[in-house]
Design brief:
The structure is a single chain. With 744 residues, this protein is α+β, with helices and mostly antiparallel strands. It has 5 domains: 183 residues, Hypothetical protein af1432; 153 residues, Beta Polymerase, domain 2, CATH 3.30.460.10; 80 residues, no CATH class; 74 residues, no CATH class; 76 residues, Alpha-Beta Plaits (2-Layer Sandwich), CATH 3.30.70. The chain is built from 29 helices and 20 strands. Strands 1, 2, 3, 4, 5 and 6 form a 6-stranded mixed β-sheet that branches. Strands 12-16-14-15-13 form a 5-stranded mixed β-sheet, with helices on one face. The chain starts with a helix and ends with a strand. About 7% of the residues have low confidence.
């Protein structure tokens, strides 16, 4: 009889054979022996260890290796590193052992992966700053480190269901915050889409299920429409002799939700759920670009194009290497449909990102925008933020930005993120140009430093050696390079001021027999001026905001006694300040600090938890809890931007929160109403809210202009169900065209 262990060994061996089969179907040189050696080594190292799901641990490295070869397209070195990526962290083996048994390159990649095990943000994120910089340095030298890490994160997201809710929030938040943008920036579009969808699924399970159900309900009608739309295009391209495939592309659940949220529209008004994709084999006797435009011409003979929705990513590829021609045409039944036109090479790059990009490189000078971006990582490392989280924020700035193209006075093309300013452009040219930027000329007209550049602008920077950065410049820039350079300048400036201020103070103190090395004296002066630390004192002195003429009064012995008795109140007499009474009620009802879950009731509101003012959650909203420094749990909506940051950076403080209200309390919610104005409409609205539903209106505002009205109602309700009832009834008024709930 086959034992459980024997069955597991069979499953493990089958998965390994599947990995080898994936590898054999690639164009890589077949190095089966070293892959087999890595598998056997990892299997032995992880023997007896299981994942939280209960399966043998080796199944995880095998799954990561299959993603690495099958979905990213990497070779034997990366497959071995994927199989070994947890060995150093989880066993007694070292990086040196890996190097001796395998190769220095495999060991280097495993070392890079070990440095970021457990996520980008740990319990003590600031202490990880140096390790994170080492990771980025490794990434800039060998991008396979981050590609394997993305594969590792993808498999963890695919198996996230076995984790407790608070872990799911943390991992999903971190994935949404950094790994999905990173996959996007590296051109891994299918992986980026799946990471976003999986994060959304665990953060908003109900909303995800609703959209998924609506997509399933519309599937048959959507495919029928696609076949009708595609038939004449296929016939035309076949008659022209093209070898091509054409298929339907369905918008992801997360992308649909994002459009619904951004535009405040229901699912039924998301009209670009369906798109078509044409992938063709290009002819060798004509450029790929010309052939794409010829297919464009063939399609627009059948359907009318939208003149403002042509995206030419062939003439100017995206900075992550993406190339394609996107057009939007009016299909049957008057519906707009996007068509993506790609060659097989462009499709390979769109699916496999950087790995495919390398495959198609033709020469040393063939640098894409992606190559240039990788070079900027090293540049960014020369001026890093001291704090790991701030450093990560700066690094993330240009991960997910859309690009614009502007021109230098000589006609050179410069790529910048959307919303970049003239000052961003100056820093992109050179740090010294940015630091001494006086202004700019855009299209030969003078503009200020914070001028927002637009695609096609011609930009000339004006500099002056007398110009120095001002603190408000940080509000003028959006790119990581400009921010890191300015912050580095201000850090140097503060350091110089601290040295100068300390020297000035020391010269004065020496006249009275003291020095700045005497902590008690310095502390006395710091407290006197209501500052936090000596560095602030020295800066204020250097900036001449503190006058040193009265320093003698502060440090005289008599003054010292009065000062200490006043500030520190060490005495036990009648002059000692009374202690504040302890809030025993709050202490007695405080939530267990080790608890990972909180039930939100009327009785513990205000003692164990409070509601975040940034998103004003109400009962029925999908929420999470965040334990602040004082032990109070702050409740945020799960889709609150502030909650996203918290999940990514401080996941250990996240709690699963559930409502358990009995309609004893009311909560404020604001709804926005838009529609066509008529006499008596406001009275009709108030009648539904106040008379029919007995809802208390706290505040209201209505405006009408040229027959269109816009109004807001702040109402006191028990939960989202009651709010939905009101909104559904208001929608029945034919003049009302849109109702949205606002965050206050």
């Amino acid at each position: 009889m086959t034992t459980q262990e024997e069955l597991e060994q069979q499953v493990i061996q089958q998965e390994f054979e599947a990995l080898l089969d994936d590898y054999r179907h690639t164009a890589h040189r077949q190095k089966i022996d070293i892959i087999t050696k890595a598998f056997n080594f990892a299997k032995q190292a992880h023997a007896g260890v299981r994942r939280r799901s209960g399966e043998p641990y080796i199944m995880h490295p095998l799954a990561v290796a299959r993603i690495v070869v099958g979905e990213i397209g990497l070779g034997s070195t990366s497959i071995c590193a994927a199989l070994l990526h947890d060995v150093v962290e989880d066993t007694d083996y070292t990086v040196e052992d890996i190097e001796k048994l395998f190769t220095p390159k495999i060991a280097q990649i495993v070392d890079g992966l070990t440095k970021i095990s457990g996520g980008v943000f740990g319990e003590k994120a600031s202490e990880q700053a140096e390790n994170f910089r080492k990771l980025l340095l490794t990434m800039s030298e060998d991008i396979r480190v981050i590609l394997i890490k993305i594969a590792d994160r993808l498999h963890n997201m695919r198996t996230l269901g076995s984790m407790p809710p608070e872990k799911q929030f943390k991992i999903a938040g971190e994935t949404q915050y950094i790994y999905a943008p990173l996959a996007h920036r590296l051109g891994l579009f299918p992986i980026k889409t799946e990471l976003e969808d999986l994060s959304f699924k665990y953060e908003h399970p109900n909303t995800y299920a609703e959209i998924e159900a609506k997509l399933a309900a519309d599937k048959a009608a959507r495919l029928e429409f696609y076949e009708e739309f595609a038939a004449p295009i296929k016939k035309k391209l076949t008659s022209l002799g093209y070898k091509f495939t054409m298929n339907a592309r369905i918008k992801s659940v997360y992308s649909i939700w994002k459009k619904m949220s951004t535009r405040q529209i229901p699912f039924e008004e998301v009209y670009d759920v369906l798109a078509a994709r044409i992938i063709f084999e290009p002819s060798m006797d004509m450029s790929e670009k010309d052939q794409c435009w010829m297919i464009y011409s063939a399609i627009t003979e059948i359907y009318h194009p939208h003149p403002e929705r042509i995206r030419d990513w062939i003439s100017m590829p995206k900075s992550n290497g993406y190339e394609a021609l996107h057009i939007t045409v009016m299909g049957p039944e008057g519906q707009w449909v996007e068509v993506q036109i790609r060659t097989t090479r462009m499709h390979d790059i769109a699916e496999k990102g950087l790995a495919a990009h390398w495959k198609y490189k033709t020469g040393e000078q063939d640098d894409s925008e992606l190559d240039k971006w990788l070079k900027t990582i090293k540049d960014l490392l020369q001026h890093p933020e001291p704090n790991a989280v701030d450093f990560m924020d700066t690094f993330k700035l240009n991960l997910f930005a859309q690009e614009i193209f502007v021109f230098t006075p000589k006609g050179d093309i410069i790529t910048l993120p959307q919303n970049a300013t003239a000052l961003d452009f100056a820093f992109l040219l050179h740090t010294e140009i940015g630091l001494h930027c006086l202004g700019a000329k855009v299209n030969h007209k003078l503009v200020p430093l914070n001028y927002l550049l637009k695609g096609g602008d011609q930009v000339e920077i004006i500099t002056s050696r007398k110009t120095k950065p001002q603190p408000e410049w940080l509000d003028y820039v959006t790119t990581a390079k400009a921010q890191s350079r300015l912050k580095a300048f201000f850090r140097r400036q503060r350091h110089d001021q601290e040295i100068k201020g300390e020297e000035m103070l020391n010269n004065v103190l020496q006249q009275y027999g003291y020095t700045t090395k005497q902590d008690a004296v310095i502390h006395r002066i710091v407290v006197y001026y209501h500052l936090q630390q000596p560095k602030e004192l020295y800066q204020q002195i250097a900036q001449k905001n503190i006058n040193l003429d009265n320093i003698e009064e502060i440090i005289k012995p008599k003054q010292e006694r009065n000062f200490l008795s006043r500030i520190f109140s060490f005495g036990n007499g009648n002059n000692s300040p009374k202690e504040e009474p302890t809030n025993t009620s709050k202490t007695s009802t405080a939530v267990n600090p080790k608890s990972k879950k909180i039930i939100l009731t009327e009785s513990n509101y205000g003692t164990e938890y409070c509601l975040a003012p940034c998103c004003t959650p109400i009962p029925g909203d999908e929420v999470l809890g965040f334990r602040d420094e004082n032990g109070m749990i702050v409740i945020h909506k799960q889709n609150c931007p502030e909650a996203l940051n918290i999940k990514a950076k401080q996941g250990k403080r996240i709690l699963n929160a559930q409502w358990d209200m009995h309609r004893q309390m009311t909560f404020a919610a604001t709804i926005e109403i838009k529609g066509i104005d008529r006499i008596g409409l406001v009275i009709h609205i108030l009648n539904i809210v106040s008379e029919q539903n007995k809802i208390n209106i706290q505040e209201m505002k209505f405006e009408a202009e040229e027959g269109i009205f816009n109004g807001t109602l702040k109402v006191l309700i028990h939960d989202t169900e009651q709010l939905k009832t009101i909104c559904d009834e208001l929608k029945k008024i034919k003049e009302i065209k849109a109702i949205n709930r606002l965050n206050e």
